Amino acid sequence: MPEPVIRVENVVKVYEPSEWWMRILLRSSVDEPVLALDGVSLDVEQGTICAVVGPNGAGKSTLFRILTGLTTPTSGSASIAGWDCETESAKIRSRVGFMPAEDRTIWLRHTCRENLEFHGRLQGLREAKIQRRVTETLDMVGLGHAADRAGFALSSGMRARLMLARALFHEPDFLILDEPTGAVDPVGSYELIELIKRITREADLAVLLSSHRIDEIEALHDRVLLLNEGRMVFWGDLDVLRSEWEQPHITIDFDTRNAARSAERILSALDGVDTVSCADGQLVLDTELPIGSLLHQLNGSLDGIESLSRSRMRLQELLAKILRADSEGGS
Amino acid sequence: MLSATRKRAERGYRISNAFIRMDAREEFNYPLGFGMRSLSSLVPVVTFFFIAQFVGTQGAAVGYDYYTFVVIGLIGMGVLGAGLQSLSSSLARTINLGRLEMLLVEPIRWRVLPFVLVQWQIVVSFTTAAIVFGGSLFFGASYRWQGLPAAVLILLLGLAATLGIGILNASLKVLSKRADPVLAIYGVAASILSGTFYSVEVLPDWIRPLAWLLPHTYVLQALRRVMMPAGADLPGPSAWQASLALVGFCLVLYPLGLWIYGRAFEYGRRAGLLSGY
């Protein structure tokens, strides 16, 4: 097992209400301590992608801010390549490529080339290398043709690519991508995710990526950190998540709506059976019970069944189910 | 040791170069706006020409030319204004455009930001000073030309001292995002007490000592001493004394400003305020 390069150990972050003097300077909506992260731990090895998933307010951005040194953990520790994110963030910042969620961080009046040159100079690269990397990274993200186009003239997808080029420009060892496809259309986001996967593989990067898009997480098919209200709900391989939580769906098509409704009444009363939907004569159930045992319960209504199938749960439903269970357990 | 210093110097040059290029490009992206702003700096040059005609006899009565006196005041205030305010305005723009977070994850020391963020505006302030100076020559201001190199040095010294106050103000700006409490108080005091438009000698006796607590007063005094033909006859400290006082201001304000600025950043970092706006 390779040594992890991004390591987060039992990190807790509490946002405290501002002191009275600070409230004079800036109004705050925090009136009582807010637990943004509650004992989060994870390891990311070189060459792997970890998707950080969770609803708004789950703590994803706080985790990324801790890793990039923009804020500090209340307790616990976070390190990248052995450097502590709280005390050695200056060293980390030259080895990490960061892509923020908002494309406002681009200098919109400046060209793609000028944006990258600026970043390269701040990274301390020499002019000859900067010019070489401008061509290389823009080609890498498919913006070679738009090198001299101003930021404001780029589409959302192109801006996301430019921000990715900026994150990759100084040849970092680690990438932290905060909702990289947030403003990109589905086709563009698919292409961007494929690009990130390819670059991760080719450059042997360790990547931490947050996303709201379930299809992306599925496409990455790597490890997932599921956060909910700052708590770590799941951390591990997507396959393990499925094996631990997934229940197959059983879809039964009836000849009439009434037949489907009466079957639903019978089956949903059974232990271990949840109704996913019941509409237009189709009943979808979430259960691990054998099909035979369900049919046995429907003994009197078997004639109304037109078809019956078993399918995998969609990841979206699976995550929703896990988060629901966590919220119920948490509250 | 030498190599490490050289490396640091090279790195500092690259960072400084990066900011000044971007700011210059940004400015020249709006050429008409830049041109109009530069030309507008000539408006007070013309206005004070006529005011000087009107009150000219007052200046002559005390042995100097009021027009030259006030133009030097305008030049001094313009350059010092850049030292005072440019960090605040630059920081506000960076925060509002959402670029601060991105700058803070670059491998540059946060303490470098106050200097690199103001470079371009300082260049602009010196350009404006040159325009005002040239314009005033056209309207008949008379200067001691041999005092020009000393005047530039005094302006640089004054700029450094006022930038110290600007950094103090920026410490609060990092947290408050908008308010400029230090600038508001200091700005009012400097406008009234530093003697831009009139000699500090006309201030009431009880308030005059306060004027000499402001770097502005020393800069204007030293500039007039070296640039006005009758500068040597002006009351108050000599150019050397004023310059020494400015060195003193720099020695106190810089470390204090940077220390408070560092504390403000650490507080903002802990409280998670750095990426907000």
Q: What percentage of residues of chain B falls in helices of 4 or more residues?
A: over 70%
- Tell me the count of domains of chain B: 1
- Which band does the percent of strand residues of chain A land in? 25-35%
Radius of gyration of chain A: 24 Å
Taking pLDDT < 50 over at least 5 consecutive residues as the criterion, the unreliable ranges of chain B are: none
Number of helices of chain A: 12
Oligomer: heterodimer
Q: Main beta sheet of chain A, described?
A: 6 strands, mixed
Helix content of chain A: 25-40%
Tell me the series of helices and strands of chain A, N- to C-terminal.
Answer: EHEEHEEHEHHHEHEHEEHEHEEHEH
Give the end-to-end Cα distance of chain B, rounded to a whole number of Å.
41 Å
Q: Quickly give the structural class of chain B.
A: mainly alpha
> How many DSSP E strands of chain A?
14
Instruction: Please give the order of strands in the largest beta sheet of chain A.
Output: 6-7-8-3-9-10
The class by helix and strand makeup of chain A works out as alpha/beta
**Helix and strand run of chain B:** HHHHHHHHHHHH
Segments of chain A where pLDDT lies below 50 for 5+ residues?
A: none
Percentage of residues in DSSP E strands of chain B: under 5%
Distance between the termini of chain A: 37 Å
How would you describe the shape of chain B?
A: globular
